[in-house]
Amino acid sequence: MNKKTGTAKQIRSRITKLAVIAMIAGSAVLTNSADAYRLGARWTNTASGPTGSGGSPATLTWGFVDDGTNFTNQAGGGSSDLIDFLDDIIGAGPGGNDLTQRPWFPLFEDTFDRWAQVSGLSYIYEPNDDGVNHSGATGQLGVRADVRIGGKFIDGSGNTLAFNFFPTNGDMTFDTGDAAFYGRSAGNYLNLRNVIAHEHGHGIGHFHVESANGRFLMEPFIQTSFDGPQFDDILGAHRGYGDFYEKSFNGLGNDVVTRATPLGLIGDGETAGVGYSVRLGTGPGVAVEVQPEDVDFVSIDDNSDTDFFSFTIDNPASVDVLLSPAGYIYREGPQNGTQSTYRTNELNDLNVALFDSNGTSLLASASDGGVGVPEEISDIDLLSPGEYFVRVRGTLNDAQFYQLEVSVTEPMMMVNGDFNDDGIYDCSDIDALVADVVGAGSPDDFDLNADGVVDGGDVDAWLAEAGEVNLGDGMAYLPGDGNLDGVVDASDFNIWNGSKFTSVPAWCSGDYNTDGVVDASDFNVWNANKFTSSDVTVAVPEPSAAGLMLFAGLGLLFRRRR
To answer: CA-based angle 138:144:148, to the nearest 5?
Structure first.
């Protein structure tokens, strides 16, 4: 990377007022430069504590030094008069010590909030300042901010507008000799806000960058044709501090499944996703302006970053997952250096995986596309309603914007218990089901409970579904009800008795345990439910004396046949 040498307190960068309008004509060979967004050192420790390594979120405090506060020699000496300057050109409001009541305060607050919307940075206003020399001390909660803002006369109208120190000193200084420039109210004081945003770009580690068409905030000349950080600027912030979701779960981020970012409930025919602020399919050299309302930026910031997302379905469904590397192709380079073409959609080789509701069982993955190529998981049947998880990773050490979409392309076709589609739930349906259970047939036609197999669970599901249709709401056929009349009684025993000790895979022939043979085990099913009804309010007649003698003799018959 393009780095300068020296101590943090000796390194500063300035923005100038001169406008540069330049276009580089002719065709360009599309190559990947080794470096973009020109990112230097990041904050490793702030008033709020350690910030971890690259790609980790950080919290910065910001505030104003009192007028009269001295600047260090490294900052050029002198004393600050920024508050009086802003009061004069924008207004003092009610005045007093509470600067949040100043009409110019929201211009600063909104600008820091904008950086927070598009990155892993967070900001807290620090109202206190102990008066130590500007750019001369680190931040301390309740004492002074990490980013202390002041102003003084630098060179008057034109040329230098402001300068800023690099981490780990984020102090900002405005030229209070540029009243005409900063006093312009157009675009809600866009001149002032873009200078704040630019200077704080240095304060989080950005050096100047130059592009072929001057479309980035960190150009060395003031830009007022757009509002706030642009694509290259945001990409650099992600490389340094991660994306917005790295701040979730109290700054722990969404790098493990238990802290997955929720995409919510996805209904039939719906798609949910993230990363839509980076529009796909934009050709080389096309300047794409980031609008102030664009906040949906997600990225993998290096080869150690992991992003988890969760989604929920309320019915069995067929699901697609599409992961697309996102970015634009543009020419850029260091200040006063050579520009080359930068392909920001080809910075990292991304891969995607889909996990079951437990968050650990891998259902499918995709990683074969290579750098810049989308990865897709298609037509995965999720048989159970509930929560599922998607994981995004990269294999290269660079920041890559991406767009992730999860689509419920169609509801999984649910099997109906009326297998022959004659409008009637009867013996022809359940006998066909039992034959499929015994024959271990295809689940496509008989898997009523959508668990991928056809077994006794599907028989239970049929008894419940058919009972609901034929007997009434909440009612189900009982095991052993061979004639499907809602009562387990002597007639069902007679069905069993007429087929006993034969191989008949049919419920209505007495194969109540669906093993393909009518034998003693089926009698036991009948016996366990005899003289009961699907409707508990219906009285079941007691068997006749002859029937009881028959049942008593039945056990003897079984003993002799064993």
So the answer is: 75
Q: Report pTM.
A: 0.73
Pull the structure tokens for residue 302: 């290096």
User: pLDDT tens-digit profile of 426-443?
Assistant: 999 999 999 999 988 767
Give per-residue pLDDT as tens, 412-428: 566 789 999 899 999 99
CATH 1.10.1330.10 positions along the chain are 427-561
Say whether domain 8-241 belongs to CATH 3.90.45.10: no
Do 346 and 394 meet the contact criterion of CB atoms below 8 Å apart? no
Between strands 58-64 and 121-125, the pairing is parallel
CB count in 10 Å sphere of residue 94: 8
pLDDT at 104: 98
Distance CA 87, CA 317 (A): 61
What tokens appear for 477 in the block? 């056929």
Non-local (6+) Cβ contacts of 131 within 8 A are: 65, 66, 69
Residue 347, judged by CB atoms within 10 A of its CB (0-12, 13-18, 19+), counts as buried
Q: What are phi and psi of 443, to 5 degrees?
A: -75, -10
> How many whole angstroms separate alpha carbon 272 and alpha carbon 281?
19
Q: How far is 540 from 537, CA to CA, in rounded Å?
A: 9
Please count the other Cβ atoms lying within 10 Å of the Cβ belonging to residue 404.
Answer: 23
Separation between Cα atoms, residue 558 and residue 76, nearest integer Å: 107
pLDDT digits (tens, 9 = 90+) for 265-290: 999 999 999 999 987 655 555 668 89
Cite the residue boundaries of each domain of the chain with CATH code 2.60.120.380.
251-411
Give the separation between CA 244 and CA 118, rounded to whole angstroms.
Answer: 6
Cis preceding linkage at 111, omega within 30? no
Task: Determine the residue type at 382.
Answer: L
**SS3 of residue 414 by DSSP:** coil
What DSSP string runs through 198-233?
A: HHHHHHTTB--EEESS--STTSSB---SS-S--HHH
Q: Token pair for residue 389? A: 């998880």
29 falls in which pLDDT band (50, 70, 90)? very low
Residue 246 per-residue DSSP state? G
CATH architecture entry for 251-411: Sandwich (2.60)
- The whole-angstrom separation of Cα 469 and Cα 473 is 7
Question: Does an H or E element contain 497, and which?
Answer: helix 490-499
For residue 333, which of 202, 222, 216 has the smallest C-alpha distance?
Answer: 216
Other beta carbons within 10 angstroms of residue 538's beta carbon come to 10
Q: Where are the domain boundaries for CATH 3.40.390.10 in the chain?
A: 8-241
CATH of domain 427-561: 1.10.1330.10
Q: What is the pLDDT of residue 287?
A: 62
Q: Is the dihedral of CA 458, 459, 464, 469 positive or negative?
A: positive
